[in-house]
């Protein structure tokens, strides 16, 4: 029984040795995905060894395994008949090359240049040399570095108030963590602050002037980090009552100035209007100013007065018969409107002086007088 068991063991070992002989891929299989930052280059390792019984032509094929079983794998590069074929219509076209200029020497590795997030996937290396066939799969994950974060504050930055410091990176592969540090003053976060590394916030309760300073936030993931800087200034609460009172006083002063300007303007306008009315008003007890015509009439009357002493009864009637156009009107006649002006005396009245002289009477001329009795 023991002999038969030993024979079975020898048989199994011989079979296993036969299976493991020939073509082999010696690169160790990675238990975790290969992670690389976007924009960098990555090497997918595939080393192999040949056996003496592997006498067929050497073929090396790299393909992108389809995530859906209903779809075919995409060949991205091929080595066959001592020639490399790289111009396959795939997302990595023009960016994938064999690592060795002669892959048949046992290096089937490839390099993918300037990787993109769309290059993430499972890649397979297949080496064939009849009768040996071996393949190896590996997973590639392309990660994005955090974009430059944006630092800002939320809430009031006055003393005694709560203020929140925020840090946000809009792009980058998850998971991403945030850290804050103070770069000025005591270089430690305020004692009342609470840091959340996932959301990237620092909540400062009951902020004081000691919290003022420069803060730096760092956003980090597995492939990189970026930073931003924030200046925080905690100021005393402003005197709101004083500001309101000052504003009210300023408004009242402006209204008072406007009222004074309007008052002065209206007063000057009324004074000008009153003076204009006084200048245009004609007083009844003041005679009008003398004109050239009145001066001429005054000269004529004066000459007539000088000749009264030389008048005789023979020529007195002639003077009486003359129209008295040179008579100076009284102030009542000046003030009388044209419609009430006295009509010229009738013809009979003109002859009164002549008849009076024939009857032996002496006509006497009465000079014109003003209201106060003075002779004009």
UniProtKB/TrEMBL annotation:
Domain Ig-like span(s) in chain numbering: 23-141, 146-235
Pfam families: Ig_3, V-set
Membrane-related topology note: Single-pass type I membrane protein
Keyword Signal in annotation: yes
GO terms for cellular component: adherens junction; basolateral plasma membrane; bicellular tight junction; cell surface; intercalated disc
Listed name of the protein: CXADR Ig-like cell adhesion molecule
Keyword Repeat among UniProt keywords: yes
Subcellular location(s) of the protein: Basolateral cell membrane; Cell junction, Adherens junction; Cell junction, Tight junction
Region (Disordered): 328-349
Signal peptide coordinates: 1-22
Organism whose genome encodes this protein: Oreochromis niloticus (Nile tilapia)
Residues passing through the membrane, by range: 243-266
Organism taxonomic ancestry: Eukaryota, Metazoa, Chordata, Craniata, Vertebrata
InterPro entries xref list: EJ_Adhesion_Regulator, Ig-like_dom, Ig-like_dom_sf, Ig-like_fold, Ig_sub, Ig_sub2, Ig_V-set
GO molecular function: cell adhesion molecule binding; virus receptor activity
UniProt keyword annotations, A-Z: Cell adhesion, Cell junction, Cell membrane, Disulfide bond, Glycoprotein, Immunoglobulin domain, Membrane, Receptor, Repeat, Signal, Tight junction, Transmembrane, Transmembrane helix
A GO BP annotation: homotypic cell-cell adhesion
């Amino acid at each position: 029984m023991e002999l038969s068991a030993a024979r079975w063991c020898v048989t199994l070992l011989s079979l296993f040795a036969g299976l493991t002989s020939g073509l082999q891929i010696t690169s160790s299989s990675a238990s975790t995905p290969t992670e690389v930052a976007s924009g960098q280059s990555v090497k997918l390792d595939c080393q192999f060894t040949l056996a003496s019984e592997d006498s067929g032509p050497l073929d090396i094929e790299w393909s992108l395994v389809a995530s859906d079983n209903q779809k075919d794998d995409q060949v991205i590069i091929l080595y066959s008949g001592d020639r490399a074929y790289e111009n396959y219509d795939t997302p990595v076209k023009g960016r994938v090359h064999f690592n060795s200029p002669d892959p048949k020497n046992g290096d089937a590795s490839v390099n993918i240049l300037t990787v993109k997030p769309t290059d993430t996937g499972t890649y397979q290396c297949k080496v064939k040399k009849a009768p040996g066939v071996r393949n190896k799969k590996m997973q590639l994950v392309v990660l994005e570095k955090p974009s430059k974060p944006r630092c800002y504050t939320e809430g009031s930055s006055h003393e005694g108030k709560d203020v929140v410091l925020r840090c946000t990176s809009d792009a980058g592969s998850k998971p991403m963590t945030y850290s804050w540090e103070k770069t000025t003053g005591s270089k430690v976060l305020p004692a009342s602050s609470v840091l959340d590394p996932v959301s990237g916030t620092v909540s400062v309760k009951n902020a004081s002037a000691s919290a003022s300073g420069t803060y730096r936030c760092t956003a980090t993931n597995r492939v990189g980090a970026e930073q931003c800087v924030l200046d925080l200034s905690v100021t005393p609460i402003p005197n709101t009552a004083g500001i309101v009172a000052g504003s009210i006083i300023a408004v009242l002063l402006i209204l008072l100035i406007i009222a004074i300007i309007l008052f002065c303007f209206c007063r000057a306008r009324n004074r000008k209007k009153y003076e204009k009315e006084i200048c245009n008003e004609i007083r009844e007890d003041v005679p009008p100013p003398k004109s050239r015509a009145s001066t001429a009439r005054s000269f004529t009357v004066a000459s007539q007065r000088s000749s009264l002493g030389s008048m005789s009864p023979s020529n007195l009637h002639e003077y009486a018969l003359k129209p008295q156009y040179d008579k100076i009107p009284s102030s009542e006649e000046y003030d009388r409107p044209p419609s009430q002006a006295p009509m010229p005396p009738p013809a009979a009245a003109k002859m009164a002086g002549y008849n009076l002289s024939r009857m032996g009477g002496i006509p006497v001329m009465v000079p014109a007088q003003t209201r106060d009795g003075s002779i004009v």
